[in-house]
Write a structure and sequence with these properties.
The protein has 30 helices and 11 strands. It has 649 residues and is an alpha/beta fold. The strands form 3 sheets. A 7-stranded mixed beta sheet has the order 5-6-4-3-7-10-11, sandwiched between helices. The protein has a two-stranded antiparallel sheet with strand order 1-2. The chain has a two-stranded antiparallel sheet with strand order 8-9.
Length: 649
């Protein structure tokens, strides 16, 4: 007979799992975090916060197709949030690329078509007229659609009016675009329509007059209380700064930062302490977390208070508080602190006590096995030879190795576990061989030669979202002097023809640059042929914004020096001379920076030409943006920031 868990208790348990998962993501334990989130989604598949965190985990792990699919699922749940503008942007995109949606039918999936509504066909025709440089006919078509549907379908009517306003905006006629939307607001039912207000905000902001900014402020203050998301708070902080109200600007910047961190699942100090008070997380890992708002906290719970002291660096104060506790978790933290003090004997005794009470805790098992490997402690060996402890420990390690087969540390610990049982264990030898192979691969991958993160975007229903994917450059040896080429067949991935041509141009420019700047490192450059791959393959990658990451990837292979693996980049590369490569501004820069933060990267290289846009951004809070973004004007500056040891070049 199953016991029904009260709804409130179930909700609290789910919140606790997600809080723990956020901390695990922050310290890089993605598989354990994914397990916690999956448990919540199994209980409640509609849990939006869990789905959002799951999306982030997949993004960080590089499973981009799943990350995009989860993001699309989330966006589809946000009905009513900017839907009209999304629809219009989709129609404009179809008009710009007719092959994606030509005809009266729209593909929904394999062998499935749906007929487009007549009104949408008419609006699509309006945007097609606009794209072919007939804006007057385009706006007239929008007015005809609006007139036809005024009394029949309020949403289509609104869509047509918004489309006409947007066409005037795109042609630079802001007063008419504004007047159209203001006139719509005088009609019953559209006074507080969110789509209309959001469109007006952008127009008033672009207009920039005092009257327009005052009107923008009124709308944003209304939207603040009637919409979700963080962008309204960001826009208000920027607007108050433009209106010379620094105190209000700072208050909204603070609120924007708090909301943005929550949206991006970055744990607060209080959440870290709460999670660590429920699950043993080694303190040295917790202290690696960088808090954007590092104000200390003073929790009432004794264990949480001890953890707060440890995070602040008061390890002795934390040790005294933990010593007063009697729970198993307090014992584990006492052991952790004894190890931090260098008292390995004291730590070992406490960890062994914890192991006997709970032989399934991975950090405890790891510490003791690693200690035995160094010192061959008899007490540790005796504990792991106890059948009551050995069986659950073995099961825990095998499950962990199954979940993360590429982690050499798990196989080393399995080797150690079998080794300390005595005798020549064939299993220990097998685990050792596997661990050694994985360690060699880890060293090669950690070098980061030819691997770089590229900031990109994807669209769903007109909404632009940031995405970080990998770019790889490789080389293979050929006869001396017979190489130095990038053949078309060696450009891999789902790339448009435009991007393939741009990759070849970038390769040649980077090769000349490398030979001019680093002749001592490129003497053998013609003894290899080169390859290139973009890892995102579920849909075509295009454009020229990957010029900078592509150049860095090739340059890394040419000089055989590693790139930083916690940094992304974006930028159009322009060849001014064989030794001068300029970095030009790119589009959707706010979303790309947002994607880098969502991916938990430490920095992103951005063209200097994009700085004015980011300075007025309402998407990424200023404090986070200042910490994350590094501006570059040319490849020389990018090299100094992107390579692990630029002084070695």
């Amino acid at each position: 007979m199953e016991i029904e868990i009260p709804a409130e208790e179930r909700k609290q348990a789910q919140e606790g799992r997600l809080r723990y998962a956020k901390v695990l993501v922050e310290i890089g334990q993605l598989r354990r975090a994914e397990h916690e989130v999956a448990e919540v989604l199994d209980e409640n598949p509609e849990h939006t916060e869990a789905l959002s965190l799951f999306t982030k985990i997949k993004h960080i792990r590089g499973q981009l197709s799943l990350a995009v699919a989860c993001s699309v699922q989330l966006q589809s749940k946000e009905a009513g949030r900017g839907q009209a503008r999304m629809h219009l942007e989709s129609l404009l995109h179809l008009a710009q690329d007719p092959s994606q949606g030509a005809g009266e039918f729209l593909a929904l999936g394999q062998n499935q078509l749906v007929q487009k509504p007549t009104a949408y066909l008419a609006l699509e025709e309006a945007f097609r007229l606009f794209v072919t440089r007939r804006p007057n006919e385009a706006s007239s078509t929008c007015r005809n659609v609006a007139s036809r549907y005024h009394d029949r379908d309020p949403y289509v009517y609104k869509l047509a009016v918004l489309a006409e306003s947007w066409i005037y905006e795109l042609t630079g006629n802001l007063p008419v675009a504004i007047e159209i939307l203001e006139r719509l607001g005088r009609e019953r039912g559209f006074e507080t329509d969110t789509d209309r207000l959001q469109a007006l905000v952008k127009l008033y902001d672009r207009s920039g007059t005092q009257g327009a900014l005052a009107a923008e402020l009124n709308i944003l203050r209304y939207l603040e209380g009637h919409t979700d998301g963080t962008e309204v708070l960001g826009r208000l902080s920027v607007l108050y700064r433009r209106l010379n109200d620094p105190s209000s600007a700072e208050e909204y910047e603070r609120r924007h930062r708090v909301a943005y961190l929550r949206e991006k699942h970055r744990p607060t100090r209080a959440e870290v302490v709460q999670a660590a008070a429920e699950h043993f997380i080694p303190l040295e890992r917790l202290r690696e977390i960088r808090f954007v708002d590092p104000q200390p906290i003073q929790p009432a719970d004794p264990r949480e208070a001890a953890l707060a002291l440890a995070l602040e660096g008061d390890l002795e104060g934390a040790r005294k508080r933990f010593a007063a506790g009697t729970d198993l978790l307090d014992v584990k933290y006492q052991a952790n602190l004894e190890a931090a003090r260098g008292d390995e004997e004291g730590a070992s005794a406490l960890f062994l006590r914890a192991l006997r009470d709970d032989p399934t805790d991975p950090p405890v098992i790891a510490w003791l096995l690693d200690r035995w490997k160094k010192h061959h402690s008899r007490s540790v060996a005796s504990a792991f030879r106890d059948e009551a402890i050995l069986a659950p420990v073995l099961e825990t390690l095998e499950r962990a190795a199954h979940d993360a087969p590429g982690d050499p540390r798990l196989w080393r610990r399995l080797e150690t576990l079998f080794e300390l049982q005595g005798g020549n264990s064939p299993q220990a030898a097998q685990f050792a061989a596997r661990a050694a192979a994985l360690e060699r691969n880890a060293v090669d991958r950690a070098q980061g030669i030819g691997r770089v993160f590229s900031a990109a975007t994807y669209r769903f229903a007109g909404r632009v979202s940031g995405l970080i994917h990998e770019v790889w450059a490789t080389r293979e040896m050929v006869a001396p002097g017979q190489g130095g080429a990038l053949r078309r067949d060696d450009i891999l991935g789902n790339l448009t023809q435009e991007m393939r041509d741009n990759v070849r141009n970038t390769f040649l420019a980077a090769r000349e640059y490398a030979q001019a700047k680093f002749p001592h490192l490129t003497r053998e450059i013609m003894n290899f042929n080169y390859g290139y791959k973009v890892t995102k393959e579920d849909e075509p990658s295009g454009g020229t914004s990957a010029g900078l990451p592509t150049a860095l990837a090739f340059l890394s292979v040419f000089v055989q020096r590693p790139l930083k693996q916690d940094m992304a980049s974006t930028g159009i590369l322009v060849t001014d001379a064989h030794d001068v490569l300029t970095v030009r501004a790119v589009g959707d820069i706010e979303q790309k920076v947002d994607g880098a933060y969502h991916r938990n990267l430490k920095s992103i290289l951005v063209p200097m030409g994009n700085r004015p846009i980011l300075d007025q951004s309402g998407i990424v809070p200023r404090a986070i943006r200042d910490d994350l973004v590094r501006y570059v004007s040319d490849l020389d500056e990018a090299v100094q920031l992107a390579f692990e040891k630029p002084e070695d070049l």
